[in-house]
Amino acid sequence: MGSDNTDLKDFKLRPMKCECNYLSKSDGSAILSQGQTVALVSVNGPLDIKMTNQSIEKATLEVLFSSKGGKPAIGDRYKEHVIRQTCETAILGSLYPRTGITVTIQEMEDYGGFLACCINCTCLALLNAGLSMRHTFAAVACAIDELGDIQLDPAPAQLAAARATMTFVFDSRNKTLVCGFTEGSFSEDAHSEALERCRSASQLVFDFYKDIVSKYSYVIG
Amino acid sequence: MKVSVGDVVLPGDFSEEIAAVGEKGKVILGPGLRKEVDGIYITKAGTLKKRAPNTFWVDNYQKRYIPARGENVIGIVVQKAGDIFRVDVGGSCTASLSYLSFEGATKKNRPKVVNGDVVYAKMLVASKDMEPEIVCVDSHGKKGRLGVLEDGFVFKCSLNLIRKILNPECPLLNSLKNEWPFELAAGMNGRIWIKANTMRETIALGNAILGSEYLSNDEIKSMCTNIASILAGHIS
Prior knowledge:
The complex is a heterodimer.
Chain A: E1 2-5, E2 16-20, E3 28-34, E4 37-47, E5 60-66, H1 74-90, E6 100-109, H2 114-129, E7 137-145, E8 150-152, H3 156-160, E9 162-171, E10 177-184, H4 188-220
Parallel strand pairs in A: 5-6
Antiparallel strand pairs in A: 1-2, 2-3, 3-4, 4-6, 7-8, 7-9, 9-10
Chain B: E1 8-9, H1 16-24, E2 28-29, E3 33-36, E4 39-42, E5 46-51, E6 55-60, E7 72-81, E8 84-88, E9 95-98, E10 118-125, E11 133-135, E12 147-149, E13 153-156, H2 159-166, H3 172-179, E14 182-187, E15 191-196, H4 199-211, H5 217-235
Parallel strand pairs in B: 2-6, 9-11
Antiparallel strand pairs in B: 1-5, 3-4, 5-6, 7-8, 7-10, 8-9, 10-11, 10-12, 13-15, 14-15
Helix pairs in contact in B: 3-5, 4-5
C-alpha cells in the first residue's frame, strides 16, 4: 500500500509518499510524508464512549495531537481544534450516533507545512478506516516572502524567510474552502491569490488520494 | 467527480449512472452510497460494484464492524444480565442475546452459557439508533450451525478478508479442506474461529487464512500446497 507522486505541472508540491494500514491494531491508520515532513495518524471508531460525552444525533469526534517531545503545548491544542472541525465537516457523523471517533496524530518530522501534512494524513487514515464521509479534504500550505511572492508547500528555508504562512483546506466536491489557517501579516490581495493557487494545487493532493486508493483496491478485491 | 461502475471511488464522488437507473425503477443502495437531494453520492473509498439488476455498493477496506441485519457474527459473552447475555461483537456497543433464543431453551431449561464463551449468532436487529440483538436459532427454532463454539481458537482480521474467504470463488477453504481436517466459523464482524486436531494444524490454518489477504487465487492455491507440505514434512 505505498505510492509516490511527482508531477511536472506549474503547481509543484513536494513529493508525497504514503503507507496506509501502517498500524496493525487501529481501525485505520496512515503515515504520510510530504517532502521531509512526516505525520502518522491513527483512527479508531465508532467506539463506545462515556455517557456524558455521547451525542444522541451524531458521533463525537476527538482529536489528539502528540508532538515529538510528547508534551502538549497550547499551539498543539489549537491545531487539534482546527483538525477536529475540518474532520467534523467531512465525516457523516449522523450515521454513527452515540459513538465516539478518536483521531490520534503523531508528529514524526516537521520540515515545514506540518499542519497540511497532518490534515492530509488524517484524511487518508479516515479513508482507510472506512468511515462514511461527505467528501474528502486536502490541505495545501503556502508561504509569502518579503517580496510578496507565493511559494507553495514551503521548505524550512523558505519558511524562515517568509512574512506569512497560510494553510488552506478544500473539499473534493466543489473545492470550496473548508478551513483556513494563517500566520503573519499579508495583504488582502495576497491572501486571495494564495487561496486560488492553493485551490488549484489541491487537485494534486486529490489525485494522490485516488492513486493510493486505487493501488490497494485492486489488491483487496 | 463523476464515476461509473467498476471505478475506484472516493467520498464526494457522484454517480449519474445510478441516478438514471433510479428514475426508471427501484435501486438498492448498499454500503458506501447515499442519496442526497441532488443525486447519489459516494461515502467510502473503494471500488463501485453492481449486481444485476440494480444493486450497487462500494467495496471498501474496513476493520471496524458496523452491525447489519441478517449477518452471522462471532461474539464473546461479556456479561449476564437477568434474561439476556451481553455479547461483544466488535461494534460500538455490545449486542444483546436472550437466553430464550437458543434451541430448546425454555424458562426452566436455561442454556449453559458463561462469561467468556464464544457464540456464533445471527444479527436479528441492527440499527444505528438501537442496541443490536443477536439470536442463536433460525426462524424455525432450529440452531443450525449457530450456538456456542466449544474449544478452538478465535482471531481477528479485516472485514474484507472474511468476505474474501466466504466468496465461493475463493479457493482457500477448498484447498485447505483437502489437506487436513478442521472446523471453521467466519463471522462477518471480522472474527474467525478455527479448530483443528493439533495445535500445529491450528496455527497453520490461522496463518494460511491471514496470509491470503493480499494474494490472488493462484497464489492462494500455491500457498496452501506449500503450507500443507511443510506441515506434513514435520509430522511424518
